[in-house]
């Protein structure tokens, strides 16, 4: 009997049923794919780190090293399981040609390191997650350049200067546990020992990775502090295992969160539609429900009839969504597969997405049970007498046609109907609101990431040009020569040199920890501080958001810094946002030892009539091999991969939202016409033309849509902005401010939504024309 009822109900309301199924399918598809991405990301990361035997602690160093000192120190440290010293050659991009390009990589912000495959651990893998081995004349290129330069196997890499002209053939692309992510400004190329020795003798500068595997991974902080207090080489940044994982997961992690959020919003839309559908169905079946109650059928049994329908519908849609996600997972995880690799499938990879889909199913069923409590309020006598639930709300007739002097009659009647039946129109309002929200918020976030102002969230003040000078044997002299040159340059409007060093800080437990501190004048190219201001006295320090959180420090607090072996109390003057270097940096006006400098940076603005491109070319020649970058290029190369993925997500959300708008508008108008059947007949008999009635229904849809768009825009710029800030707070930026393209956000997107809803409404009311006035009145 139930099967017959379900079949009959589906035939009668196939458009409504199919629409609801589609929404649940989309919601379960995205939640299954999003949860699969999470599992895939963690599995693939673990697999990459296991197969490559990623180091737990790495000290980069430029300059001479004493291997015996390192060996002795490591052998006396009980935390050291294994160690190795990897030798690399840092070759400036101006000496490197990739693929078919006839131009060098001089504009790349990436430091290019050429090395032999490691022997003990920290292996560099190919795209099959196998340890790379290359022969003489061959090279393995980082995946980053494969994407950015559109390279393929068989392409050439040319390295040349005045004494060297070497051409190598690409035989593999590198998955690197340390330097995969685009936000890491270093990339490692693998060459054969013979080619390595030739490069070492003719070009570039030698740097070292002093790497350790530990016996206990949980004691990384303890080991880091011990190394910082030793006399071992420390001319370069230190990086640990946890930071490697964070940087590798950063790009895909953002996309996962966006997909999950969109799926949650789709679930909300599906629940709203189910609520509307159930209420409408109950109203249509009001008399039949009264009859069933009158003949003694229990309300629980009546509920069961309706609940079975929506349970079957939700189960079918959830199953379809899950099965479709299985075929589309490769699209969602393509970037993970490329950069990190495909780990062997675990049981969790099947269970977690299935559990996520099951949760969606249970939420839908539970929501249906809540709505079906309306049966408790239905009286058999009232149902038989009235025949329908009717519009019980008392409406004060503030909107009177004879008092309207500003609106056309049809426009007025359409607006009046929305206000009088506001409860019913609230369903479609919320759907329109959510659709506008999930379009506008990602679009605004994408515009923000593409804006030059996003550089502020990377702990960098905005300027025309940035010059990076990394560690080398004569770095101090080169830095001083560069400052002298810039001071004499009349094309420069203003400039600000900064120096980054590692200092020791005494934590709350009295233990010393190392911290990267940038020293310079931070008032020339100022940051936007979350709290407080830039340090202007030598006893002040500004902390990045993550550093301040981990140290439990706020503006006005003090912390103890070790400077030249002397402890000094520093006052926290400000807290800023920074997603670079793991989000853990600081800024102060401190004396520094040139021997401990990690890198030098000079930011500068040129005068308005000077070409930035020409000035960059000049500085590249004058300061070779320093990296001279236009700040916009710096941002694009650093976050370009994340921006490209975000673009795809934005396109997906726009397509889904427009699809939802069309379906919901058509569904709602169809139900509205069925409900207003008698009212339409009366208007026709009074002389209202089909055109007049169409105007009324279009006005109803547009009024609700415009209110929804206005509120959706407001919420996108407030709640949406806070939501994005919350997600980025884990990476070091806790207060993102959307950069809004006003034409896009306030004209193009609303106009597109208005056109979609208007056309859908006009198509949906075609059925009115087919109806006979006599038939309507008779019914």
What's the pLDDT, averaged over the residues? 81
Structural class: alpha+beta
Q: What form results from the Cα inertia axes?
A: elongated
Helix content: 40-55%
Strand order of the largest sheet: 3-6-7-5-8-4-2-9-1-10
Number of DSSP strands?
A: 20
How many helices? The count is 23
Ranges with pLDDT <50 over ≥5 residues? 390-396
Q: How far do the termini sit from each other?
A: 29 Å
Structure description:
With 779 residues, this protein is of the alpha+beta class. Helices cover 53% and strands 18% of the residues. It has 23 helices and 20 strands. A hairpin with a 4-residue loop joins β6 and β7. The two termini are 29 Å apart. Mean pLDDT is 81; it is low at 390-396.
List the SSEs and their pairings.
Layout: H1 2-12, H2 14-52, E1 57-62, H3 67-75, E2 80-91, E3 96-98, E4 111-115, E5 138-142, H4 143-148, E6 156-160, E7 165-174, E8 186-191, H5 193-202, E9 205-214, H6 220-228, E10 238-240, H7 241-284, H8 286-294, H9 299-332, H10 334-339, H11 347-371, H12 380-386, H13 409-420, H14 422-450, E11 465-470, H15 475-488, E12 492-506, E13 512-520, E14 529-532, E15 540-544, H16 545-551, E16 558-563, E17 566-576, E18 586-588, E19 597-606, H17 612-622, E20 627-630, H18 631-675, H19 677-685, H20 690-729, H21 742-764, H22 767-770, H23 773-778
Parallel strand pairs: 4-8, 5-7, 13-18, 15-17
Antiparallel strand pairs: 1-9, 1-10, 2-4, 2-9, 3-6, 5-8, 6-7, 11-19, 11-20, 12-13, 12-16, 12-19, 14-17, 15-18, 16-17
């Amino acid at each position: 009997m139930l099967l017959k009822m379900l079949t009959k109900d589906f035939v009668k309301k196939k458009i409504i049923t199919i629409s609801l199924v589609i929404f649940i399918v989309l919601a379960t598809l995205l939640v299954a794919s999003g949860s699969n991405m999470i599992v895939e990301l963690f599995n693939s990361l673990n697999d990459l780190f296991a197969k490559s035997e990623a180091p737990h602690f790495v000290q980069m160093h430029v300059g001479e090293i004493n291997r015996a000192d390192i060996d002795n120190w490591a052998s006396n440290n009980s935390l050291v399981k294994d160690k190795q010293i990897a030798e690399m050659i840092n070759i400036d991009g101006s000496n490197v040609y990739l693929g078919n390009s006839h131009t060098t990589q001089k504009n790349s912000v990436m430091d290019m390191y050429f090395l032999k495959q490691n022997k003990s651990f920290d292996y560099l893998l190919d795209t099959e997650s196998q340890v790379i081995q290359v022969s003489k004349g061959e090279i393995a290129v980082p995946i980053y350049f494969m994407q950015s330069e559109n390279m393929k196997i068989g392409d050439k890499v040319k390295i040349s200067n005045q004494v060297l002209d070497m051409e190598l053939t690409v035989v593999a692309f590198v998955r690197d546990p340390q330097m995969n992510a685009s936000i890491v400004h270093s990339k490692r190329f693998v060459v054969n020992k013979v080619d390595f020795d030739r490069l070492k003798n003719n070009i570039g500068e030698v740097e070292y990775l002093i790497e350790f595997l530990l016996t206990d991974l949980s004691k990384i902080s303890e080991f880091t502090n011990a190394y910082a207090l030793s006399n071992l080489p420390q001319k370069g940044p230190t990086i640990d295992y946890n930071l490697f994982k964070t940087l590798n997961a950063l790009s895909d992690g953002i996309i996962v969160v966006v997909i999950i959020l969109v799926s949650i919003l789709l679930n909300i839309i599906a629940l709203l539609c189910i609520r509307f559908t159930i209420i409408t169905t109950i109203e249509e079946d009001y008399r039949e429900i009264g009859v069933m109650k009158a003949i003694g059928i229990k309300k629980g049994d009546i509920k069961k009839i309706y609940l079975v329908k929506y349970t079957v519908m939700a189960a079918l849609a959830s199953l379809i969504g899950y099965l479709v996600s299985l075929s589309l997972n490769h699209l969602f995880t393509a970037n993970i597969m490329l950069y990190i690799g495909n780990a062997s499938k675990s049981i969790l990879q099947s269970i977690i997405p299935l559990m996520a889909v099951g949760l969606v199913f249970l939420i839908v069923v539970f929501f249906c049970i809540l709505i079906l409590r309306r049966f408790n309020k239905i009286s058999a006598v009232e149902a038989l007498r009235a025949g329908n639930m009717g519009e019980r709300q008392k409406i004060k007739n503030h909107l009177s046609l004879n008092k309207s002097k500003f609106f056309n009659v049809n426009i007025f009647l359409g607006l009046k109907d929305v206000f009088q039946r506001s409860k019913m129109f609230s369903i479609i309002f919320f759907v329109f609101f959510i659709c506008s929200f999930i379009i506008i918020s990602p679009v605004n976030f994408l515009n923000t990431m593409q804006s030059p102002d996003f550089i502020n969230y990377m702990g960098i003040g905005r300027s025309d040009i940035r010059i990076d000078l990394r560690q080398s044997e004569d770095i101090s002299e080169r830095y001083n020569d560069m400052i002298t040159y810039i001071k004499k340059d009349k094309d420069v409007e203003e400039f600000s040199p900064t120096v980054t060093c590692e200092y020791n800080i005494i934590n709350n437990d009295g233990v010393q920890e190392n911290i990267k501190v940038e020293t310079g004048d931070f008032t020339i190219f100022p940051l936007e501080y979350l709290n407080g201001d830039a340090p202007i006295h030598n006893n002040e320090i500004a902390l990045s958001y993550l550093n301040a959180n981990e140290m439990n420090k706020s503006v006005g607090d003090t912390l103890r810094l070790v400077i030249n072996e002397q402890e000094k109390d520093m006052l926290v003057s400000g807290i800023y946002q920074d997603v670079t270097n793991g989000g853990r940096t600081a800024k102060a006006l401190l004396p520094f030892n040139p021997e401990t400098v990690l890198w030098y940076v000079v930011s500068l603005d040129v005068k308005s009539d000077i070409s930035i491109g020409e000035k960059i070319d000049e500085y590249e020649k004058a300061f070779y091999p320093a990296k001279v970058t236009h700040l916009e290029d710096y941002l694009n190369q650093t976050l370009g991969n994340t921006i490209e993925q975000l673009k795809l997500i934005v396109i997906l959300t726009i397509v889904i939202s427009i699809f939802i708008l069309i379906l919901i508008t058509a569904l709602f108008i169809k139900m509205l016409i069925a409900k207003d059947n008698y009212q339409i007949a009366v208007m026709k008999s009074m002389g209202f033309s089909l055109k007049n009635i169409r105007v009324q229904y279009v006005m109803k849809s547009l009024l609700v849509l415009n209110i929804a768009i206005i509120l959706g825009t407001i919420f996108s710029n407030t709640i949406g902005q806070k939501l994005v800030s919350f997600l980025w707070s884990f990476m070091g930026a806790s207060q993102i401010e959307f950069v809004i393209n006003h034409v896009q956000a306030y004209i193009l997107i609303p106009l597109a939504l208005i056109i979609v809803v208007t056309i859908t409404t006009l198509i949906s009311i075609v059925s009115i024309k087919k109806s006979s006035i006599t038939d309507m009145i008779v019914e």
